[in-house]
Write a sequence for this structure.
């Protein structure tokens, strides 16, 4: 990011990032930290939290499962104490859910995917909104997926929750816009890392193909024929936090290389 663009990011932004100790969330945290944000994160992985504490000790942390409303309440109590307020919520927490035909998915798998991916967004948004009302640069960013605009064969729970996040985003943009709170969704595509590798492996088993065949097929449906780096998603977060995005709200912004079908 060049200096001119970076100057549009308000120094000292107070930011909460869910699932911020590893994966895409960790990269988002590092990018925000680089530009002077004060950050508090939660993560279900205590080891990842310990690693973040070691690398970026100034970032506040809470071990919490966003699927549990009581744990989210405790997380926000600690975050508010650490940050003294809130300017940005990055609702990043999510799981891949099962890869299977609809009749092979258990109710428990469905409910867990909904609990983390959709309920978790709600629990965090309801706690964040009163804090965001007191900010002069209030932003809520919900992480959805291209599966939230295209659907995803054999990934019904995941796709359903990601579609839900888009509806959640558009509804909140209308509800909170008059109070100056901007609400947008980011729709990543095939993001490099362990999660997409697990998805490819599971899909290969379900479809009776090799992992290489599945990856080649998936990339053939991407116009740019390449995967997305976690930093690409982080850059979009930075943009949405900046004054350059001050009139962007209610949008679903894909960072995917243009996935044509899934």
């Amino acid at each position: 990011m060049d200096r001119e663009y970076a100057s549009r990011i308000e120094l000292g932004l107070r930011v909460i990032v869910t699932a911020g100790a590893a994966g895409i969330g960790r990269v988002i945290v590092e990018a925000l930290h680089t530009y002077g944000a004060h950050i508090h994160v939660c993560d279900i992985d205590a080891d990842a939290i310990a690693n973040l504490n070691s690398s970026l000790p100034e970032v506040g942390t809470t071990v919490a499962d966003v699927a549990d409303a009581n744990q989210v309440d405790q997380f926000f109590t600690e975050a508010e104490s650490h940050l003294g307020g809130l300017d940005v919520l990055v609702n990043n927490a999510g799981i891949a859910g099962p890869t299977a035909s609809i009749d092979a998915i258990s109710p428990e798998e469905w409910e867990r995917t909904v609990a983390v991916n959709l309920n978790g967004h709600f629990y965090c948004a309801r706690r964040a909104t009163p804090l965001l009302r007191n900010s002069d640069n209030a932003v809520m960013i919900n992480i959805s997926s291209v599966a939230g605009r295209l659907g995803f064969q054999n990934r019904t729970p995941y796709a359903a929750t990601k579609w839900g996040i888009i509806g959640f985003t558009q509804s909140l943009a209308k509800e909170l816009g008059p109070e100056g709170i901007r609400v947008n969704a980011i729709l990543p595509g095939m993001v490099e890392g362990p999660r997409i590798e697990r998805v490819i492996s599971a899909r290969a088993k379900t479809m009776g193909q090799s992992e290489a065949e599945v990856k080649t097929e998936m990339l053939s449906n991407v116009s740019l024929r390449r995967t997305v780096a976690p930093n690409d998603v982080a850059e979009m977060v930075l943009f949405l936090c900046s004054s350059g995005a001050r009139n962007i709200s209610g949008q679903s912004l894909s960072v995917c290389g243009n996935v044509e079908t899934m």
